[in-house]
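About this split. The held-out portion is used to measure sequence recovery: a designer receives only the structure tokens and must propose an amino acid at every position. Recovery is the fraction of positions where the proposal matches the reference. Here is one held-out target exactly as it appears in the evaluation file.
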């Protein structure tokens, strides 16, 4: 895909007709009867004609390593796993270690071993579009538990019927009731693709910059080239080294335009290299926090905007959330296999509850996006599309939570993490893109991802004329 160079990013915009929108946002259930009316004073601040300008706060909560089918493959109305007439799952995936093919199965265990999830694993799993290589990828590459079977979490994992690896496991609302409750009440995205066919670090680089690269000169973004397997690990740079990510990220544009932002991590997370990484309940893996490695962040003296989790909860309670927030989990709460997924769900629920229980005026103007950064080796039946040479990757779950969500709908627009950047840019930056010129911080990115013609528009998930959906406050440990 050639790279548009327009600073104002008007090229490639696709008008979505009402008919297309009706197909993309298919209802799967009526909104809960508890949906209620906001106070007259608060509701009066919503102007239906203003569209996404009604959004004052965007919060992105990012978890780890789960595919869409693994969490929502049986969700009513979604593009889930095909079934046969007798109700059994239709796909049967070849297993090089057995004469038996392996079908998806109901996985009631909260601990999963998962599978490999790098570029090689993605190529094997996708298998030219047949989507039948997940077990072969596991057999050829292995997973984190293969060499560490005595680790407590690994010891808790169990195979499915006839020894089927849990990469074929499917969870339901019995294991992840809160996630299903959010999906039922708000908007479930069943065509959200990981931004690249690779692992966590490239996904998080794409989340904040729409690119994963490596740079010949850490001070010149025009020397950068795409890299999915081994982008620089900022946390392992030698003392005194320059920040390795020389291309522009979204915080450069936000800071240039005076738009507030914060990136929330565990209080004990390492922010300056070299890091002596000891992951615990108070630290976020630097894989999930790439911003310290960006030259742009250092240039704007914005390291202080990488904040501890307590600041997020305090801001949510006080009604002082920044315009754009990212929220990253700490060790044991990420849902990265073999984590207990209940711990991750509890963390996410507390984070969402913080918005729900905050001031009404803030809640009415906040959109929360929940997503998982890559597929974790788990089965998904939908073939990724090729948006450019770097992606998309295998499908992951995505949920949008807002009082003005088109509640009870499934959004089947083609989405990836670029859609978050597009929404941020459209709402707060007058449509300015990370376009290679980047408001004076040039780089050599191959694609303006936010302008891809097949990329959907998250603004279509809202109905600003409806009665706002009342707060959904859930028990973190149901």
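Reference sequence for scoring:
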């Amino acid at each position: 895909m050639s790279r548009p160079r327009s600073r104002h990013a008007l090229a490639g915009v696709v008008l979505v007709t009402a008919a297309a929108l009706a197909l993309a946002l298919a209802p799967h259930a009526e909104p809960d009867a508890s949906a209620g009316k906001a106070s007259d004073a608060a509701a009066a601040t919503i102007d239906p004609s203003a569209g996404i300008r009604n959004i004052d706060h965007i919060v992105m909560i990012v978890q780890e390593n789960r595919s869409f089918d693994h969490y929502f493959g049986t969700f009513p109305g979604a593009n889930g796993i095909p079934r046969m007439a007798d109700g059994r799952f239709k796909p049967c995936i070849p297993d090089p270690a057995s004469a038996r093919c392996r079908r998806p199965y109901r996985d009631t265990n909260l601990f999963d071993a998962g599978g490999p999830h790098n570029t090689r694993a993605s190529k094997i799993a996708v298998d030219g579009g047949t989507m039948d290589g997940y077990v072969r990828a596991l057999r050829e590459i292995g997973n984190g538990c293969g060499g560490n079977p005595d680790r407590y979490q690994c010891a808790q994992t169990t195979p499915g019927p006839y020894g089927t690896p849990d990469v074929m496991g499917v969870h339901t609302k019995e294991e992840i009731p809160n996630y299903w409750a959010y999906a039922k009440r708000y908007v479930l995205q069943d065509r959200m693709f990981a931004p690249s066919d690779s692992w966590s670090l490239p996904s998080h680089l794409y989340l904040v910059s729409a690119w994963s690269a490596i740079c010949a000169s850490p001070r010149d973004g025009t020397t950068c080239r795409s890299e999915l397997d081994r982008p620089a690990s900022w946390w392992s740079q030698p003392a005194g080294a320059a920040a390795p990510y020389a291309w522009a990220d979204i915080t450069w544009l936000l800071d240039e335009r005076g738009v507030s932002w914060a990136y929330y991590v565990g209080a004990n997370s390492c922010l300056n290299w070299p890091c002596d990484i000891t992951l615990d309940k108070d630290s976020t893996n630097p894989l999930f926090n790439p911003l310290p490695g960006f030259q742009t962040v250092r240039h704007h003296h914005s390291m202080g905007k990488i904040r501890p989790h307590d600041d997020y909860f305090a801001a949510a309670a006080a009604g002082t959330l920044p315009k754009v927030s990212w929220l990253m989990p700490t060790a044991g709460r990420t849902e990265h296999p073999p984590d207990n997924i209940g711990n991750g769900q509890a963390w996410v629920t507390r984070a969402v509850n913080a918005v729900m229980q905050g001031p009404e005026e803030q809640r009415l103007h906040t959109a929360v996006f929940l997503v998982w950064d890559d597929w974790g080796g788990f089965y998904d039946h939908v073939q990724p599309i090729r948006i450019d040479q770097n992606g998309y990757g295998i499908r992951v779950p995505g949920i949008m939570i807002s009082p003005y969500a088109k509640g009870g709908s499934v959004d089947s627009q083609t989405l990836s993490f670029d859609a978050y950047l597009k929404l941020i840019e459209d709402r707060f930056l007058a449509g300015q893109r990370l376009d290679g010129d980047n408001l004076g911080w040039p780089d050599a990115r191959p694609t303006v991802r936010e302008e891809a013609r097949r990329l959907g528009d998250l603004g279509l998930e809202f109905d600003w004329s409806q009665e706002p959906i009342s707060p959904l406050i859930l028990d973190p440990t149901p």
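Annotator remark: Confidence is low (pLDDT under 50) at residues 1-23, 29-36.
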